[in-house]
Amino acid sequence: MKHKRELPIHGTTDNIFLEVRDSFKRNFTEGWEKAGAAFCVIHKGKVIVDLWGGYADRECFKEWKEDTISTIFSCTKSVTAICFAILVDRGQLNYSDKVTKYWPEFGQNGKQDITVEMVLSHTAGLPYFPGVRFTEDELVDNNKMSHIIENLKPVYTPGTRTAYHALTFGWLTDQIFRRVDPLHRTVGQFFKEEIATKHYIDIHIGECSSEENRLARLFKCPPTLVSREVAYDRSILKLARYFYNPRGYFAAARRNLSLYGTDFTMFNNSDLRAVGQPAVNGIGSARAMAMLHQLVLDGTLLSKETFEQIRQPRNMTAFDHMIGEPQNKEHGFTYFKSPLQTWQFGHPGVGGQMVRADVDNDMVLAYLTNGMKTAGCEDHVFTFNRLQRKVYECLKRIPKFELPPPEDVDE
């Protein structure tokens, strides 16, 4: 029987952050990473950590390479949030605007007072689309999608609670976005033309057949790793009760896409990826996610005035009735507290994906893995937590002078 060999860790790490490389390697040697992963950190505009290793396709022993990209899942929402912030910055949209200002037909069946911010902050009352099981034809037809959404009735009174719009966020935002954008582009088209092409950001939302050969294949979390993750963080069991509750929001949301399967490895299907759903199925690299959020931090994409609106949450933490725990979600972003208790904005993605931008420390962290973690997101992913803690430990050692050039750490 052919055995998988231990693969080397590749990339560069600044000398002060060499311990981050060691932590990244330990994620593999200790069995926390079952396939491949990449991790990138930018500090004050400089890439100080850029690592990758393991398998892009575990079943056929294809290595994760420097140009490997992977499904970023709900980190796509942070990309979408940045696109919306650009519309706000250009004066084409206000977060407080009612959706009906741009889409009058949307206001049917109790949706007349839903604002753009309610959609972006997951309080619009549409965490799933009741009674809808999308066909492939409906997913790629903007007019059919519009009619489906216009006829929906909210699951709860809009604005009265937070319930993560895991999938519906993408369908809703895309329809709003193409009505606001003067060229009527989808989020994916806008991002490609206004950001990705201009700034060489290797993230794609929508048709991307030319990138398929670089794309990592998702690998389902094995039961042995599930047990280890639960032992690490017992709160995962509470989240699982919400996720697997057959009468819960998550089960209903999964039924909207039941055509494609029952678990998240459905996103290995290139037909589904081509839909361009700007909530969950963007693809890209950890390096690209970090670079994108760096463009927000350094003022390239947004004015100071708009940046001040999104840099940290304005409201109190709210219990999320989809996820099963309190979270901070506004303007399309999720907000976190760093190990140094500074605010970070970005978004988690199911299976362990993460991007976080720390304004006060002028730093961005991005992590991708195709070995799906059962904990999935937030602060429950051991591999990301280990890396983040080590980054912030090393950060305290940085002297006031300029950092030296990164060191090649291929092993």
From TrEMBL:
Q: Where does the record place the Beta-lactamase-related domain?
A: 24-380
Instruction: List the residue ranges forming a coiled coil, or say none.
Output: none
SUPFAM superfamilies (UniProt xref) = beta-lactamase/transpeptidase-like
List the InterPro entries. Answer: Beta-lactam-related, Beta-lactam/transpept-like, Beta-lactamase/esterase
- According to its UniProt record, what is one Pfam family this protein matches? Beta-lactamase
Q: Which PANTHER family match?
A: BETA-LACTAMASE-RELATED (PTHR43319), BETA-LACTAMASE-RELATED DOMAIN-CONTAINING PROTEIN (PTHR43319:SF3)
Q: What is this protein called?
A: Beta-lactamase-related domain-containing protein
